[in-house]
Write a structure and sequence with these properties.
There is one protein chain. The chain is built from 16 helices and no strands. Helix content is 62%, strand content 0%. The chain has 321 residues and is mainly α. Helix 4 packs antiparallel against helix 5, helix 7 crosses helix 8 and helix 9 packs across helix 11. It is elongated and about 105 Å long. The chain has 3 domains: 165 residues, Four Helix Bundle (Hemerythrin (Met), subunit A) (Up-down Bundle), CATH 1.20.120; 67 residues, Arc Repressor Mutant, subunit A, CATH 1.10.10; 65 residues, Winged helix-like DNA-binding domain superfamily/Winged helix DNA-binding domain (Arc Repressor Mutant, subunit A, Orthogonal Bundle), CATH 1.10.10.
């Protein structure tokens, strides 16, 4: 039986008159009252400890009808009890786990709805949130007295936020600089209202307790959040002519010689000292053959023969490589 068929069967049993008997097959079930809300939730560690955790919006009761919400809560608890009693390699464990995932998908959709204003497809956000749901199911301990939605919501939301943190930036920057940028934005707004002017780097560094170099890095990080296409048209205030690629950079003719220079370095190192010195004086010091002859202590004709022989050796070395 597939996971989809299994979850449909479990839900169908809950709606039928034989639902209580079918639920008992998974293990003892504690009575659960109507669900007004999932309750306040926060970090996963706090949820595991069984304490009330503030900081996250509760799931309203309107998310599901009253009877369906009760059945979902009861079924989840029963399935978690059954899941804890099964071996890791048991085929039934995979069936129960898949049923729990499908049963709690509305929780993921509710959490994903908080991020609908982001410039990402809702299907991708739900898919990422489902990964957090699976992690929460694998770590949940039903014996700690914490309801599963209270435990799972921080993991689901955290997985979605991690997705935005890793994919929203055009250029990947360290998380420390991302957090510093947010702190700089907040501190800059507060100081601007207090001083009635834009704060300086030194003032921002004093408020945040960091060095001025870190402030400069944090301000520069903002340029990495979004990127412009090289084919984008020029702004109207710049004349609006040509694309960004037409207005940036220039053709560096020296780049063509980089490969040759790097290839010549080992060949020049193998030359005798006199020939290497003649090459350096001729092509780097721009001296004439007569000047080189006077510098080295040989005739101009001898310099010409040495240059011809040495250049032939270098050319053969480049061709063979």
């Amino acid at each position: 039986m597939s996971a989809e068929q299994g979850s449909s069967k479990v839900l169908a049993l809950a709606e039928s008159e034989t639902a209580p008997d079918s639920i008992e097959a998974f293990g003892p079930v504690e009575p659960v009252g109507p669900i007004d809300s999932v309750g306040p939730v926060g970090s996963v560690d706090d949820a595991r400890a069984g304490d009330a955790v503030p900081g996250l919006d509760a799931v309203p009761a309107q998310t599901l009808p009253a009877t369906e919400a009760i059945d979902t809560r009861t079924l989840s608890r029963s399935l978690f009890l059954r899941l804890a009693a099964l071996d890791q390699d048991s085929p039934e464990r995979a069936y129960v786990r898949d049923t729990l995932i499908e049963l709690n998908l509305p929780l993921v959709r509710y959490a994903a709805a908080r991020f609908r204003s982001r410039n990402e497809p809702m299907e991708d956000i739900v898919q990422v949130g489902t990964i957090g749901l699976i992690k929460a199911i694998d770590r949940f301990d039903c014996e700690r007295g914490v309801e599963f939605p209270t435990f799972a919501m921080p993991t689901v939301v955290g997985e979605i936020k991690r997705f935005f943190r890793d994919t929203s930036w055009s250029v990947r920057v360290p998380r420390r600089l991302q957090e510093l940028r947010l702190a700089l934005t907040k501190a800059s707004d507060e100081l601007s209202q207090k001083l009635d002017r834009s704060p300086t780097v030194a003032e921002l560094a004093t408020v945040l307790g960091v060095s001025e170099e870190d402030v400069v890095d944090g301000l520069a990080v903002g340029n990495a959040y979004t990127a412009s296409s090289l084919d984008s048209p020029a702004p109207e205030d710049d004349g609006g002519e040509g694309s960004l690629a037409d207005r940036l950079g220039y053709e560096d003719t020296a780049l063509e010689g980089v490969e040759y220079r790097e290839s010549l370095k080992p060949l020049l190192a193998k030359l005798p000292p006199r020939e290497r010195r003649i090459i350096m004086l001729r092509f780097f010091a721009n001296m004439t053959q007569s000047q080189i002859g006077e510098e080295v202590g040989i005739s101009q004709m001898h310099v010409s023969r040495l240059l011809t022989r040495t250049l032939s050796q270098l050319r053969e070395g480049l061709i063979s490589d």
